[in-house]
Design goal:
heterodimer, A: alpha+beta, nine-stranded mixed β-sheet, 9 strands, 25% helix, globular, B: alpha+beta, two-stranded antiparallel sheet, 2 helices, 2 strands, 11% strand, flat
Chain lengths: 147, 53
């Protein structure tokens, strides 16, 4: 994947990833967290948000408008590679906290889809059913699994 | 002020990530717990692709 992305950091559990968005609004700490939500088969939830240094809280409701959306999305997508290198062919579930955020995830997956489709299965949730991901369709949630 | 990371605290992972002891664990963060609970409910409701094929 040759998209521009930020340097990102993880701990030895490979469940938490941090990086800094840099743009007109300054430097904003971003956090990606994977949490197991199902045991058999194993499914992890991918969640992503801004870390508020003043309140020590995270949310993904606010739109930081730091003019680097594509770089941020590419960085989040890159964490999937590191995560699956460590955890194998588990399912990764992702959806936004709002419709707009889910569309953002959709755009991120669409941008990297050509690069990852040989190595990953990608599904979209539409009207309560999982389908193979097709770029023009807007889905409600996503599942990614290493082949 | 530029970020400074002590060399002894970081090392490269197999992928692109840099392993650092400075990265927090967010497993108990309420925001992420809430997101995980919502995701769990969605998986319970809709299942997984292979279970339906």
């Amino acid at each position: 994947m040759n998209l521009k992305r930020y340097a990102y950091f993880t701990n030895e559990d490979f469940l938490d990833y941090e990086f800094y968005s840099e743009g007109p609004k300054g430097k904003i700490k971003k956090v990606v967290h994977y949490q197991k939500i199902n045991e058999n088969p194993v499914v992890y939830n991918l969640a992503f948000g801004d870390f508020n240094e003043e309140t020590n809280t995270i949310n993904d409701i606010i739109n930081t408008n730091n003019d680097d959306r594509d770089i941020v999305l590419a960085t989040v997508a890159s964490t999937i590679i590191d995560f699956t290198d460590h955890y194998g062919d588990v399912y990764i579930y992702a959806t936004g906290s709002t419709l707009a955020r889910t569309r953002l995830y959709q755009m991120g997956i669409s941008r990297i889809y050509i690069d990852i489709q040989n190595d990953f299965e990608v599904y979209g949730l539409l009207k309560g059913e999982w389908h193979r991901f097709i770029r023009p369709i807007n889905y409600d949630a996503f599942l990614v699994k290493k082949k | 002020m530029p970020s400074v990371i002590k060399k002894e605290r970081i090392k490269k992972s197999k992928g692109q990530a840099i392993i650092s002891t400075d990265v927090n664990s967010y497993s108990n963060d309420p925001y992420f717990e809430n997101k995980a609970n919502n995701a769990k409910q969605a998986i319970e409701k809709y299942g997984l692709p292979q279970q339906k094929q």
